[in-house]
Each structure stands twice: as C-alpha cells, then as structure tokens.
Amino acid sequence: MATRIRRQHSDEVRAKIQASQIINRLVGHVDGKIEMTNSQVRAALGLLSKVVPDLAAIQHSGEVAHKHFAVSDTPEHAPEEWDQQHATIQ
After folding, report:
1. What residues make up the domain containing 15?
2. 19 alpha-carbon distance from chain centroid
3. Tens digit of each residue's pLDDT, the chain (90 residues)
C-alpha cells in the first residue's frame, strides 16, 4: 500500500503547481496567445512573488578560507617535482 504524503509536502507541491500555472499564463500573454488586463498581470506577478523567491533579493555573503598552504625552502626544485613531492592523496 502506498504511503501517505506529509501535509507539508503536499502544500509545497501545491504551491509549485500554482506557480507553474501562473508562469504558463504569463508566458502565454507574452506570446500573444492569452489576453490579460493590466490588473490581471499585476495580480499574477504579485502572487508569483509570494510563491517564488526573488533572486535579486538573495545576497551571498561569506568568506572563503584557504586552510592548506606550503612553503618551500628549496626554490631550485621545478614546479613538477614540488607537485609530486607534496601531492595530496585524494
């Protein structure tokens, strides 16, 4: 017997389906296949902003930390020799 989907999961799926319906309607309007009034377009964009996150509002912040470095006190080695000697096993 099939397991029952969680209530929260079904809400997420429902929101995605509604978002895709709004997007399809707006794309149809842009393509000239569907006629929409200005208020319908504004309402669709407003609803869409509630369901789909605005990518312009997402800000990446953080720091990249390099943990590994090596110092060679024998500069006469060729880079290939140094790479072989200090290669990290992956």
Report:
1. 7-54+63-85
2. 16
3. 556 556 666 777 777 778 888 999 999 999 999 999 999 999 999 888 887 776 666 666 777 776 766 666 666 667 777 777 777 655
**pTM beyond 0.90:** no
Long-range contacts of 15-20 (CB under 8 A, 24+ apart): 15/51, 16/51, 18/47, 18/51, 19/48, 19/51, 19/52
Q: Is residue 76 part of a domain?
A: yes
Contact 25, 44 (CB under 8 A): yes
The answer to whether 55 and 61 are in contact (CB under 8 A) is no
